[in-house]
Structures are given as C-alpha cells and as structure tokens.
Amino acid sequence: MAVAFEVTDDEQDGHGEWAVLHVSGEMDLVTSPVLRQRVHDAVADGRRSLVLDLSGVVFCDSSGVGVLVATRRLMRSCRGRLRLILPADGHAGGGPAEGAHVSRVLAALGVRRLFDVHPDVRSAVAPEPDAEAGPLSA
After folding, report:
1. Backbone angles phi and psi of 97, in degrees to 5
2. Which residues pair with 84 in a beta bridge?
3. Least confident stretch, 55-59, 70-74, 96-100, 131-135
4. Surface-to-core class of residue 57, CB atoms within 10 Å of its CB (0-12 exposed, 13-18 middle, 19+ buried)
5. What is the distance between the alpha carbons of residues 83 and 86, in angstroms, rounded to a whole number?
6. HEC string of the chain?
C-alpha cells in the first residue's frame, strides 16, 4: 500500500517570521526532491526561518535524511534558522507515534543532535529564551 507524500504550507497567522511546511507520507528517493524544491522555494521567497513539521512522515530513507541535512546547510549558508518537529517515540496509546520513525533514523545515524527539534508547531515558532541553546554547529 503506497502512502501519499505531501508538503503543505501552514498559512496561519501567528507564526511571525516562521514559514511552516507540514510533511506527510514517505520521504524516499522518489518523494524527497519535492521537499527539497519546497524548501528552495521558501528561501527564494525570502524566508529565513523555516519549520519542517515531520510528524506526519511514516518512513524516511537516506535520501530523506540527505534533504534534511542539505536544508540545514542551506539555512545556515543564508544565515537562516531551521527547526524540525519530531514527535516522541511513543504516544498515549502506547504504540509508536506517527513521525517517530524520522527521529529514530536521525538518532541512529548520529545526526539528530545537529537539528533544533521541537514537539509541536507552537514551541517551534516560539521565541528562543536562551540564544546560546540550540543544535550543535558541525
């Protein structure tokens, strides 16, 4: 059974300078270029603060990870900011949360610590209480 891949903009007011892209489905060799293009479009539109909501992603392979790492590099090169929304490994029902797969893949590859990770949009777009706190700068 194929899972449809989708990247949608969150047009809600209240995100201030943050552009929020909601990603759902499977991030793989076929679908990852769609996300890459949407990120490049946001940057071309002058957006320098980007949130990728990955809570709806059910599968992520190495090409998906590559897009996330390339997005981090792009945002850093234009002095922008990137935040990821990744759910915890489990939810109240006891099973794995949708989107937790990405978190496990990033952790297994040792790159999760490079990203500024948040549990939801509200916390991702909130002002930083401490500018020194954040992801590693590798």
Report:
1. -75, 145
2. 52, 117
3. 131-135
4. buried
5. 10
6. CCCCCEEEECCCCCCCCEEEEEEEEEECCCCHHHHHHHHHHHHHCCCCEEEEEEEEEEEECHHHHHHHHHHHHHHHHCCCEEEEECCCCECCCCCECCCHHHHHHHHHCCCHHHCEEECCHHHHHCCCCCCCCCCCCC
